[in-house]
Amino acid sequence: MWNLIADVGGTNMRLAEVSAEGEILTQERFQTKGEMTLEAACVQFANSRGSMPARAVIAAAGVVKDGAVQLTNADNQSFSETSLSQALAGASVKVLNDFEAAAWSLATVGPEDVTTLQGKAEFPKDPCLILGPGTGLGVGALVWAGDVPCVVPGEGGHVALGPRTPEEVPIFKAMRDEWPEVGMGEGLIVEAEAILSGTGLPLFYRAVAKSMDLTAPLDNGADIFEAAKAKLDTAAMRAVELFARYLAGVAGDLGLVFAAKGGVFVTGGVAAANPWMFDEAFVAAFNAGGRHTGWRQELPLHLYHQPNFGLIGARNYLVNR
Questions:
Q1: Is-contact 103 92, C-beta < 8 A?
Q2: CA nearest 258: which of 137, 141, 133?
Q3: What are residue 14's DSSP bridge partners?
Q4: Which strands form 12-19's sheet, in the order they lie side by side?
Q5: For 130-159, how does the pLDDT look when each residue is reduced to its tens digit (9 = 90+)?
Q6: What domains, with CATH codes, occur in the chain?
Q7: Residue 242: which pLDDT band, with cuts at 50, 70 and 90?
């Protein structure tokens, strides 16, 4: 008997065989934006194994509703637990959001998977929080019931974010003009994801530039980060400075919500491409909790650079459910 796991993102569909003991064996990669559907890829993969899997767990980069998902960055890929089960001859199928899978991966995190910014690279069976800016802002949490891990999925990337100082007020006014749909209520608050994501950063950069009476010639997140790192664009430098401070603050806030003594883990493409952003100022912003500053300082804080967290999370779900 064998089981199937998959990590389905906007570029690739990675499929893997898992033994009855939970060991990840053969892997195969398919293009997400090609003509092949996930159902067809799973059938081809299963046929090459010589039999259909007993179970399948899929980590998908999109919002999962009632077991169905439309990928965020691949309009041609939509699937459901029902369609996959039918394709796989009645196999039991579970579809996880990608950050739900990321949280599941923390059940087996090790020192080799992290760069520790605060605390130690130790992983007690206490609540853990993971978040990561990418196309959106993904958030997930892992809690323990004795020795049994459980994941709490959610949409923490859509919590409220607003100006922290008077100097930031014009930026948020301009941000609400740039992207009215992300405004929350009548004031200056926006969704955190509107700023803390690859999608939102170019708009936030334009808002920062407008507040400083500067031009905004850059139009994608990678260029903004590169210009900020090289100190070539004043608005980019300010936008990335605030991006880091806000990301740290949201991480600290959510860490308090879950009492994340097992660790707060920052991951995702933006973090992986810009490790220079996670400096002493980032840790200070994470810990800036007023009367609970000392409490935040007790939360371990890590950069999580496990590239296979989708597959590992799917495997961990299989083993524990």
A1: no
A2: 141
A3: 7, 29
A4: 24-31, 12-19, 2-8, 55-60, 92-97
A5: 999 988 899 999 999 999 999 998 888 999
A6: 2-103+308-320 (3.30.420.40), 110-305 (3.40.367.20)
A7: very high
